[in-house]
Each structure stands twice: as structure tokens, then as C-alpha cells.
Input
Amino acid sequence: MWLETKAVMGLNVGGITHLIPDRVADAARDVLALAARGELDVAPAAVLPLAEAAEAHRMLEERRVTGKLVLRTGS
Output
């Protein structure tokens, strides 16, 4: 999706923007357009209360969760 990446393990866009600014800008526009049309699944994989931060870390370390993990501070 992003510059034809098939899997994103981590990407520092700021680290490459100066090398290929036009490609990064085009890719950003494409991704933002997909998001605006609701065509991206951006829902977090899990939402846990902040009190369960240690469990959230265990889930990530044990690869029991794919995607974003959110720690909730309110009720």
C-alpha cells in the first residue's frame, strides 16, 4: 500500500522523505484518500485500560495481537 510495501513492520517516513519527496507525497495522498473513503481498517486490534499496560506489553512480546493496541486512560 505505502510505496508498494507488502507488510509494514515499522517505517520512518521522515527518514526517506528528503530522498524521494514526490513519491512520498503521492503515496500520502493515496493513503489519505483511501482513509477518507473509509476503505482502510483503522480499528485497533485491542483496547485495554491503562491499568493493564503490563498485559498489553506481554501481548505484544508474545505476538498475541496484530495491529494497534490502545491503552485507555478514561472510563
Summary: The chain has a mean pLDDT of 86. The chain has three helices and two strands.
